[in-house]
Amino acid sequence: MRDNPLSICEREFILAAVEIQKRIDGREPYDLRKIKITFGLDYGCCHVELGKTRVMAQVSCEIAAPKQTRLNEGTMFINVELSPMAAPQFETRSQDLNTEITRLLERSIKNSRCVDLESLCIMAGEKVWELRVDVHVLNHEGNILDCANIAAIAALAHFRRPDVTVCGEEITVHPADERDPVPLSILHMPLCVTFAFFHNGKCLILDPNEREERVMDGKMVVSMNKHREICTLQISGQMLLEKDQIFRCTNMAVKKVIVLTELIQLSLENDSNARAAGEKFGFAESVETNEITTEYKEESEVDMSDIDDQVVMATQNGNSEDGSIEELELDMETKVTIMFEGTGMIGQGGANTWDMDEDMESDLTEHKQKPQANSRSATIAKHIGGDLSGESEEEDTVMLQQEDIGLQSKPIISSEEPTGNEIDLTAALAKPRGKKKKSKHKH
Asked: Residue 98: CB partners within 8 Å, gap ≥ 6?
């Protein structure tokens, strides 16, 4: 997999934006990207996100022999791994950058003696603890050094080594279920802050991203703690800096280091409280999932008893010639269920509560007055097809009463005793046979 080169238009655009104090990601020149620090289930495992740059650090220890020059001190090694998973260019030319980051981390953490190595001594001249810090770059989006430095310091502060007891020449290492692990003695927290220079040192930005690193003239790395003690300083690139520029960068670095130190301490405190309280912790609990269920809200009822009666405006959908609008007043309590903000639901089950007009009430009254048993239907259904409104395809049914067609009821001859409510409709349904004969004679 090959890396995508930066085009000339992109290069000129980035340089022009930096010149007018603008950045392509919307930040101000001296703003850091969003930082997120999370710890794993095991002590000494830390994951840091600096924008889209992701680095994981893991601290481990083992018993080894001390150095001949320092017989009463433990040892510490730092290893940085740049895999092609982080960026395509690391597949071929990652050796130089790997060496540079490893050396800077050793100068910032190991040479500044932020960890008390004398506390790692088990038996002077014979056995000491050997610490190993493995830094894995998961994604490269610029400024790997600062992200790796934060991950390494946070992992060392989070690490716990097993407790040991010495009886004569016998060393006993106690597991975590027998004795609580012992944290490392962290004297201070040196943190790196990277500055990028453009236009021969005239323009300066903090925390450059990957595209800005491609077009910068050079950079300066300042490693210091919150006590304003400079641990290391490195300048690289093709530009010359004045003394005032260096002082200006160190003064800005102090403010950023104080903020980062407080963030690391807060993350350590939150993890310690979660473990002590028995709450969930680790990488799985810190992952933010983008699901619809994250916006789910419980149902809530709204009291609408104090709302006046509503007036519903209804039309006859083209069945009325003059298109008049009727007002239907609903004298009932309407209950609205709020599912979530912006939506609602009305009428879940129950009987129909719509009011009826005068025609429907009169028809219902007449239907109830007529007996239902031992009687024939007294109406004729006339089915009228066609499109009455000109556009609708629905069919209407018109109910005709016997008064509408002018029929007179006749008694029906039956063996049973007549009830008096039966109507003979044979005369109305009789077919004109004489007319059909004439039509056949004409043909």
From this structure: 80, 81, 82
Instruction: Report the alpha-carbon distance of residue 37 to residue 47 in Å, rounded.
Output: 6
Burial 38-58 (b: 16+ CB within 10 A, else e): bbbeebbbbbbbbbebbbbbb
Separation CA 160–CA 175 (nearest Å): 12
Are residues 23 and 117 in contact, defined by beta-carbon separation less than 8 angstroms?
no
Domain 8-287 -> CATH class: alpha beta
- The model's confidence at residue 200, banded by pLDDT at 50, 70 and 90, is confident
* 85: Cβ contacts below 8 Å, ≥ 6 apart: 138, 139
Domain extents in the chain:
8-287, 297-370, 378-386+394-411+423-430
Q: Which structure tokens are listed for 123?
A: 């038996």
Report which of residues 399 and 369 the model is more confident about. Answer: 399
**pLDDT in the model for residue 173:** 87
- What pLDDT score was predicted for residue 75? 92
In whole angstroms, give the CA distance from residue 60 to residue 181. 13
